[in-house]
């Protein structure tokens, strides 16, 4: 049985929690039997139980039987969960990982105990296909524990370690950013319909073009402008289109949207209280 890090309890097994569980098993990082999944209505975890995961509606019991505790509930459910598990949290045994938007390590330690090691994690919805851009931060976890969390989330995508004061910004750029890029792809496909393609073909063309653009940057380790220069020629059609988009505020609107999302991300936990 592969559980060299001990049992992992995922409290609140929604999309993010389940995607991580699947990724850990698929990467042979952890076996299903050493992952405990909780949900208020445990009948929603019937399929996971059949796959070999431990499932339960009892959060304190799951915590007692684990060494890594992942908090994956909604922000408005967090305070109740922390109150529920606080009596069984052991700072000498447990590493606490939070994937909850807008909640600081300090917020969690205030409820669980200031000596508990807490790592804050922000994945995005591409975690469901193993392509998340995940940011992690901590104000008190050891270098070894941060490295452990990094290795866990590398099973479901790319990971960067950042300062915690940048986590709300990371939420806007990476988590909200999924929607921003999807909206850009939708707009491109609508443009394709305008110039003569059927909607399904236009969408396929826009999606693959966007994927190709991203892969150029990832594989060439280049800057966007380097790749843009390769496709723009003097008096050409590409530069004409780019300049028209900029005249209409393409870059500035995207930047302003990211900035506003960062402000709102910092208010999520406060508004839920």
Topology (SSEs and partners):
Blueprint lengths: L7 E4 L3 H12 L8 E4 L7 H5 L3 E3 L2 H6 L3 E4 L3 H11 L9 E4 L6 H8 L4 E6 L9 E6 L5 H11 L3 E5 L5 H28 L4 H22 L3 H8 L5 H11 L2 H16 L2 H5 L1
Parallel strand pairs: 1-2, 1-4, 2-3, 4-5, 5-6, 7-8
Antiparallel strand pairs: 6-7
Pathway: Amino-acid biosynthesis; L-proline biosynthesis; L-proline from L-glutamate 5-semialdehyde: step 1/1
InterPro entries: 6-PGluconate_DH-like_C_sf, NAD(P)-bd_dom_sf, P5C_Rdtase_cat_N, P5CR_dimer, Pyrroline-COOH_reductase
Protein name: Pyrroline-5-carboxylate reductase
Features:
ProC C-terminal domain-like fold; 12 helices; Rossmann fold; 8 strands; 273 residues; alpha/beta; elongated; 52% helix; 2 domains
Kindly describe this structure.
NADPH binds at residue 59. Residues 8-101 form the Pyrroline-5-carboxylate reductase catalytic N-terminal domain. One of its GO terms (molecular function) is pyrroline-5-carboxylate reductase activity. Belongs to the pyrroline-5-carboxylate reductase family. The protein is α/β, with parallel strands linked by helices. It folds into two domains: 8-162, Rossmann fold; 170-268, ProC C-terminal domain-like fold (Orthogonal Bundle), CATH 1.10.3730.10. Helices cover 52% and strands 13% of the residues. It has an eight-stranded mixed β-sheet, sandwiched between helices. The protein starts with 7 loop residues before the first strand and ends with a helix.
Percent in strands:
5-15%
Overall, the morphology is elongated
- CATH topology title of the largest domain: Rossmann fold
Number of strands: 8
Structural class: alpha/beta
Integer-rounded radius of gyration: 21 Å
Give me the number of helical elements.
12
Largest sheet features = 8 strands, mixed
CATH class of the largest domain: Alpha Beta
Quickly give the CATH architecture of the largest domain. 3-Layer(aba) Sandwich
The share of residues in helices is 40-55%
Q: Element order, helices and strands?
A: EHEHEHEHEHEEHEHHHHHH
Low-confidence runs: none
Mean pLDDT: 93
- What is the domain total for the residues? 2
Distance between the termini: 41 Å
EC number: 1.5.1.2
Catalytic activity: L-proline + NADP(+) = (S)-1-pyrroline-5-carboxylate + NADPH + 2 H(+); L-proline + NAD(+) = (S)-1-pyrroline-5-carboxylate + NADH + 2 H(+)
Pfam families: F420_oxidored, P5CR_dimer
GO cellular component, one term: cytoplasm
């Amino acid at each position: 049985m592969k559980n060299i890090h001990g049992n992992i309890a995922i409290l609140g097994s929604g999309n993010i929690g389940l995607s991580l569980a699947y990724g850990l098993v698929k990467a042979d990082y952890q076996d299903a039997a050493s992952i405990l999944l909780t949900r208020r209505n445990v009948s929603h975890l019937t399929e996971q139980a059949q796959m070999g995961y431990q499932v339960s509606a009892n959060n304190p019991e799951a915590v007692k039987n684990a060494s890594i505790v992942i908090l994956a509930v909604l922000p408005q459910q967090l305070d109740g969960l922390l109150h529920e598990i606080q009596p069984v949290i052991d700072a000498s045994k447990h590493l606490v990982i939070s994937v909850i938007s807008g909640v600081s390590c300090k917020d969690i330690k205030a409820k669980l105990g200031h000596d508990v090691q807490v790592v804050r994690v922000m994945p995005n919805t591409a975690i469901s296909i193993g392509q998340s851009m995940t940011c992690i931060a901590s104000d008190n976890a050891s270098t070894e524990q941060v490295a452990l969390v990094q290795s866990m989330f590398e099973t479901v995508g790319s990971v960067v370690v950042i300062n915690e004061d940048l986590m709300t910004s990371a939420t806007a750029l990476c988590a909200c950013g999924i929607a921003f890029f999807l909206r850009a792809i939708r707009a491109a496909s609508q443009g394709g319909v305008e110039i003569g393609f059927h909607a399904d073909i236009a969408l396929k063309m826009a999606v693959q073009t966007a994927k190709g653009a991203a892969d150029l940057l990832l594989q060439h380790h280049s800057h966007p402008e380097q790749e843009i220069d390769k496709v723009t020629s003097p008096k050409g059609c590409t530069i004409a289109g780019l300049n028209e988009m900029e005249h209409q505020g393409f870059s500035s609107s995207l930047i302003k949207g990211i900035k506003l999302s960062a402000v709102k991300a910092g208010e999520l936990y406060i508004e839920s209280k």
